[in-house]
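Reading a protein record of the kind used here takes only a little practice. The integers have meaning only within a learned vocabulary of local backbone shapes. With that in mind, consider the following protein and its fold in token form:
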Amino acid sequence: MRTGLFGKIKSQGQSEDVFQDEGFKNFDLGLNSLAGVQLTSGLTFSINYTPGLSNIYNGAEDLEDMIKMKWKNTVVGFSVGYMFARK
């Protein structure tokens, strides 16, 4: 789950709030998949994928078809780490 607290769109010198009745929703829901490996040297590698499950846009009905389509967040992440001495 994620929630948006603040957001602005700036275009051509004008600023507008993102989270409006006819804008982006400030709530999103997704699933997270994570896989990783830890080597004997202590190095760790992982990858994660999070597809969004909910439509995050409240498009007005009179806008173009492109705006009426469903908008979803998707996240792909990679990480590299090191595990220090463990007991």
About this structure: The first strand starts at residue 2 and ends at 3.
